[in-house]
Amino acid sequence: MKLNRDNILKKYKWLREKKRPFIISADYDGLICASFLNHYLNWELVGYYDFKSIWLSKEALQYKNNLIWVDLNILPKAGTSLGGHIVSMNSTVPKGFNSSCNPNILADINSKKFENKFPFSTLIFLLWLHDIQIDNKIAKLFILHSDNTWMKVQRYSNNIKYWTEILSSYPWDRLFKNICSIQHEEQVDQFLYPRLIHIGASTNFSKLTSKYLKIKSRECKINPDWDNDIILRLLNLFGEYISWTPPVIPKIIQRVDGKRLKISLEDVKKIGLDQFIKKNKVFSYAITSSRYISYTNFSKTIKS
Questions:
Q1: Which residue in 27, 116, 167, 231 is deepest, having the highest Cβ count within 10 Å?
Q2: Does residue 197 belong to any structural domain of this protein?
C-alpha cells in the first residue's frame, strides 16, 4: 500500500489552508509542529492540550468550532485533528474522526496491527505531506528529535521500512542519513541535548535508548501555567537552527481540567468502542499498546 499526498490534501483541504487557528500538544512535538505550521501556512497558535487540561486563549474561544488540534486525536465533531496514535480496534473508525487526518487510519492500522503503528512524529508526517525537504545537518537534529524519531529509526528498522514505502516519493535516505552511527549519537549528546537542557526543555527521560552510546532519550513536556519562558526559548531555538518563523505565543485566559484514565482493550471490547466512547463521554483517546487505551473526559463544557 502507498499513500498519495495529493489525494490526502484533496480530501483534507484544511491541511493546505492559510491562517487556521490551532491547538497543539503541550510538549516538544507540538511546539515544533507549531513552528512549521506558522512558517509555511501562517496558522495561528491559540492553545495547548496535555491530555488532562486544555489551555485556551481568547482566540481559541472565539473560533472554538473551527479549531484544528495538532499532534492530537480528539473526538468532538466540531474539532478537526492531525495526530498519529492508533484509534481503532478493527477497520471501523469512530465518526468523530471522519474529518481528522491520521496516518494510521489512512493505512488501516488498528490495535491488531500494533507492531505496524506509525513510527514517526506528526512533524515528519507534515514534512512528507507538504514535500518539504531538510538538508541542513543541525536542523535535522531538532526535527528528528520530535517523538524520538531518530531512535525509532535505529531500533525499529522493519517498521521504518514499512512506512517509508507507504509514504512514497520522499527522500527518506537523505533525511535519515548516518542516523545509525556513533557520530550521529555524539552530535545529539554533545550539541542537541545540552542546548535543550540549558533552556529547560528537557523535563523527562523516555523508555528508548540509542543503539551505540546507550543515550537515554529526552522529552520536554510543558505546563503553560508557568512555562512561557521555556516555550519562547524553544521556539526561538527552532528559528535559529531550522530557520522557521516562531509563532506568537497565545495569551491564555482559561484552563479546563479533565481526567485522564486508562482501561484495558478487553474491557472496551465487551461493550464496543462506540458505546465506550458514548458512555464515558470521551473527548480524546489513544490505543497506547496492544492491551490498553488511555482516554480523557471533561465534566464541564468549554464556554466562551
A1: 231
A2: yes
